[in-house]
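Bench notes, afternoon.
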Amino acid sequence: MASYFTVDIHTHILPEHIPDFGAKYGYRGFIHLDHHKPGCARMMMDDKFFREVQANCWDPAVRIGECDHHRVDVQVLSTVPVMFSYWARPQDTLDLSMFLNDHIAGIVHRWPKRFIGMGTVPMQDPELAIHELERCKRIGLVGIQIGTHIHGTNLGEPRLLEVFEACQELDMAVFVHPWDMMGADRFDKYWMPWLVGMPVETATAITSMIFSGLFERLPRLRVAFAHGGGSFPATLGRIEHGFLVRPDLCAVDNRVNPRDYLGRFWIDALVHDPAILRLVVDQMGASRVAMGTDYPFPLGELVPGDLIHGMPYDKPTKDLLLGGAAMEWLGLDATRFR
């Protein structure tokens, strides 16, 4: 097998020990870990079970061992999206964000050739978000992970513009991840929030950012979207058609064809299907599709890079998909990790 520099842009991590933030702040809704047996913990939202996680969700040594086994050179670390806490009081979300960001920065500082860090910020309060964004840069993080909406506010709304302006000015990348999926009251069976809701969330975020003119205003903003851009690649034709036939509804804030933005943002390659990978690479270009696995969760790619390695692409294309696209999105030089 040919040798590739491999970067996983989509991995999640938690501190092993999370304080009782509900007790600290005086209200409920925050996550803590119940370490009910060695190497295994329950993520609990107050007294409600959310998800079970293993030691690879918090132990860097376990992660490095698994990366070595799967020939992953570098992981990009971000928190688990349920930790965003955009619904909480902004000052409390800031405090929680600082705790999570310091944890990730500490790991990156200790293993700088194996990990890259993304922060989280209180997006519901743009002033506080920018304050923590600036601190993220100071402590060695290279960007932020945000949700597909901010407690019901779409990403293209004007009140969020100043945060994205700060990301561009500070040269901080943005990773958009679905969370708090729409229609959850209808998706109570069959794991549909994760199977159906997440792709729609991501497509909504991309469409909102395009139609709002955000990418026009901020041409140097580097944004990547999780899960292969969700349902956006497969519905781009419909989105473009709507833009062309009903500009009175779609082109109210931006008169540029949505298709013209292909190549202006990145997506990860977590699509689970060779035909869809071909589609997104053809649409976006290999330099805009970066390997991402959703490690360490089971809905992700269980063998990192397996889908890409199995495609009949030449080595330069696979070099981009496995590492080159990631480095360009992050604004980093691969020689730093060798």
